[in-house]
Specification:
The structure is a single chain. The chain is mainly alpha-helical and about 240 residues long. It has one domain. It has ten helices and no strands. The radius of gyration is 17 Å and the shape is globular.
Length: about 240
Amino acid sequence: MDIPPEFFVFVAIGLAAQTVDGALGMAYGVTSSSLLLAFGLPPALASASVHAAEVATTGVSGLSHGLFGNIDRGLLWQLALPGVAGGALGAWFLGSVDLAWLRPLVAAYLLLLGLLLVLRAFRGRRAEARRGTALPLGFGAGFLDAVGGGGWGSMITPHLMARHIEPRFAIGTANAAEFFVSAAISAVFVATLGISHVHVVAGLLVGGVVAAPFAAWLTRRLPARPLMAAVGVLVVLLSLYNLSR
C-alpha cells in the first residue's frame, strides 16, 4: 500500500504536539486540530481523527508518567470518570448542535487563569494543595474537549496547579485521565461518523507514541516554578490565539 506524502507531515505534527502535551500537560488536541482544520478537514472529522490518535498517545503517555511517579491515583479517577461522561455527551452534541459560541468564553477564562499561573510562578509563593472534588471540572473539560477537538489539558492542568498541586502531578494525572476520556469520545465518533482518514490518524499516532516517554521524563526533571511558568505562558498564548479566531 502506498503511503501518502502528507502522512509524514501528520507524523511531525503528532511528534511536536505530544512533546509539548506530555511535558506541559496540554496542547496536543488544540495544536493537532488547528492544523487539521487548516488542511481542510471538517471540524467533526478533525476532532474524531485527533481523539482516535489520542487513545494510543495518551495511553503511552499515562503509562510513562506512571513509571516516573507523576500520577496522583485518587485524583485520576475523580477526573477520568466524569470526563468520560462529559466527553461522550460533547461528541454526540458536536454532530447535532452548534456550540461555537462556547469557545471565546472558555478562551477568555483560560487567559485569566494562565496569567495567574505566570504571576504565581514569578512570585514563588508556595501553599498547601487544595484537594476539593474535581468531578465538575472533569465533566466540563471532557465536554469541551470533544466539542473543540481538544482542550482537556488546557482546562485540567492549570486548574490543578491553581489549587497548588505540584506541577508534575498535575501534568501526569491530567495526561493519564485523558486516555479514558479520549477512548470514550472516539467510541462515540466511530458510532456516529464511522472510520475515515486513516492516514491522518496513523500519522498523528506514530508521532505521538514516539514522543510520549521522552515528554514524561522531561516533566519529572523540570523544576516546579519554571514548569508552572511555562504552562501559564502556553495557556495565555493558546487563549489569545483562540480569541483572535
